[in-house]
Amino acid sequence: MVLFTVATWENPSWGWPSEGSDMKRLLLLVLLLGSVSIAQAQVNAPTLQIDRGNAAPDFSSTSAAKATLLNDLAAANPISLSAVRLTNMPASPEVATALALPLENAEPASPSPQPKFLYGGRADYRWELGFGATWLRFRSSVFNASAAGITASVAYFTNDWFGIEGDITAAFAPTILANEHVKIATYGGGPKIAWRQKQWEPWLHGIFGGAHEQPQIADQSRNSYVIKAGGGADYRWNPRISFRLEGDYVRTGFFNQSQNDFQLTGGIVFHF
Asked: Given 25, 57, 116, 188, which is the most exposed site by the fewest CB atoms within 10 A?
């Protein structure tokens, strides 16, 4: 086509009329230049070096391939993964440790903190607040009475077995003396020793304090000392509440005499 175009341009009488020859020569010149430009562009076009046989030549050396290999090994056998050594992989102690250990051997999460004693290792509460119903058998040379009432106590444990306790009791009897019902009250404090188990808590205590009785006896004081010695057991219903059964020997000194009495109590205890 180029040869025909050049020949035609040099001798326009070949195949073309004579009129309008200038316009035809100009058109042939433009076509010639375009053909040369297209041929030159095809010759100078760069050859792309594409390896069509391997679309991802170095995929096996990438971190994605290594991660895939680790996942496959972990799914197959998590214990044997520690023996696998991958080259050209950055060190990561955290990932290696997590993958090398089976799930059942992983360290469990630490439990939430519980109340602790200042001394000792048992987790429990320091304070106990108890309320209960009580029965007191009072015997003396002046009168005998079986009085029923209420009692309250509070204890603070300095360690897992020793505490300090305060106690107060008020009891009322149907016995009438000097036209008045008999009333007896005791109060005091002392040490408490407990064997604090998960569910049962047996304990011993001693209370030293005072006592008061009514009615007034002629030429006699209505006040006396009191000594209580006894113990009981608490049944832990839940971490905050226990049920209590208690028995005490009670010694008083009314009417210039000594009385040996007995007290039985049952109630509920709150821990905090």
From this structure: 57
Burial class (CB in 10 A: 0-12, 13-18, 19+), 134: buried
So what's the pLDDT on residue 26? 73
Alpha carbon distance 263, 249 (integer Å): 6
**3-state DSSP call for residue 225?**
strand
Q: What is the pLDDT of residues 148-179, one digit of tens each?
A: 999 999 999 999 899 999 999 999 999 888 78
The CA distance from 19 to 9, in Å, is 14
8 Å CB contact between 163 and 192: yes
Q: Please, how many CA atoms are within 13 Å of residue 72, restricted to the half-sphere of its CB?
A: 7
Other C-beta atoms closer than 10 Å to the C-beta of 3 total: 7
Give Dmax (Cα) for the chain: 168
Q: Both ends of the chain: CA-CA distance in Å?
A: 108
**Number of continuous H segments (helices) and E segments (strands) in the chain:** 4, 8
pLDDT, one tens digit per residue, over 85-142 is 544 455 555 444 544 555 555 555 655 555 544 434 456 899 999 999 999 999 998 9
Q: Indicate if the alpha-carbon torsion angle 95, 97, 103, 109 is positive or negative.
A: negative
DSSP state of 143: -
